[in-house]
């Protein structure tokens, strides 16, 4: 599995790292994307989706929709919890999304969930840097199920 510390020197490199993670997915994984506004969470998600043979132009920020569904090689739900200030798991129907054991769930602003136990394989992707900066990206495997 692709875990470790990486530096990306361009938007394309951030996308490509997402693609590498996407290529490892088998279904049922949770991906938590940490990082401030403009860090690259949505771009990284486009990279993941490109590995699942999905049209990346259809991958957009769910900051208003809250949940985007992509019927790719795997079923993917892309969440953005930025606007939710309480009980985020309930607001997006997270338990229902978890009913599908093979769905991949990608979550921007996962800190809004508080402590939530997924009982799934969970990856955390922490992206540091914004603007034109090089991004420092750490990928860890945080929960095994
Ligand atoms: P978020 O979803 O975290 O708010 P977005 O993915 O929407 O952020 O936007 C990230 C921005 O950062 C994009 O404009 C992208 O081109 C830029 N970006 C990503 N990685 C790099 C990098 N390594 N160097 C410079 N810019 C980057
Ligand atoms: Mg985003």
Query: Helicity, in percent?
Result: 10-25%
Structural class: alpha/beta
Label the overall shape. globular
Radius of gyration: 14 Å
Q: Could you walk me through the main structural features you see in this protein, from its secondary elements to its overall organization?
A:
By secondary structure, the protein is an alpha/beta fold. The chain is built from 4 helices and 7 strands, in the order βαβαββααβββ. The protein has a 7-stranded mixed beta sheet with strand order 1-7-6-2-5-4-3. Strand 6 and strand 7 form a beta hairpin. Helix 1 crosses helix 2. The model has no long low-confidence stretch (mean pLDDT 96). Magnesium ion binds next to helix 2.
Layout of SSEs?
Layout: E1 4-8, H1 11-22, E2 30-34, H2 41-51, E3 67-71, E4 75-80, H3 88-91, H4 94-97, E5 104-108, E6 122-128, E7 135-143
Parallel strand pairs: 2-5, 2-6, 4-5
Antiparallel strand pairs: 1-7, 3-4, 6-7
Bound molecules: adenosine-5'-diphosphate and magnesium ion.
Magnesium ion binds next to helix 2.
Give a quick precis of the structure.
This protein has four helices and seven strands, in the order βαβαββααβββ. By secondary structure, it is α/β, with parallel strands linked by helices. Residues 8-11, 13-14, 35, 37-43, 61, 108, 132, 134-135 line the site of adenosine-5'-diphosphate.
Which short descriptors sum up this protein?
single chain; binds magnesium ion; 145 residues; 7-stranded mixed β-sheet; globular; binds adenosine-5'-diphosphate; alpha/beta
């Amino acid at each position: 599995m692709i875990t470790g510390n990486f530096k990306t020197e361009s938007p394309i490199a951030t996308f490509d790292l997402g693609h590498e993670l996407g290529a490892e997915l088998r279904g049922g994984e949770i991906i938590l994307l940490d990082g401030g506004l403009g860090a690259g969470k949505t771009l990284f998600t486009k990279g993941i989706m490109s590995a699942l043979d999905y049209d990346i132009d259809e991958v957009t920020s769910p900051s208003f929709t809250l949940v985007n569904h992509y019927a790719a090689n795997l079923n993917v739900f892309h969440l953005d919890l930025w606007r939710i200030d309480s009980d985020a798991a309930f607001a997006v129907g997270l338990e229902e999304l978890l009913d599908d054991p093979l769905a991949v769930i990608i979550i921007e602003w996962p800190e809004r969930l508080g402590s939530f136990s997924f009982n799934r394989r969970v990856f955390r992707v922490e992206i540091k840097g914004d603007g034109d900066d090089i991004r420092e990206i750490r990928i860890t495997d945080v929960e095994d199920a």
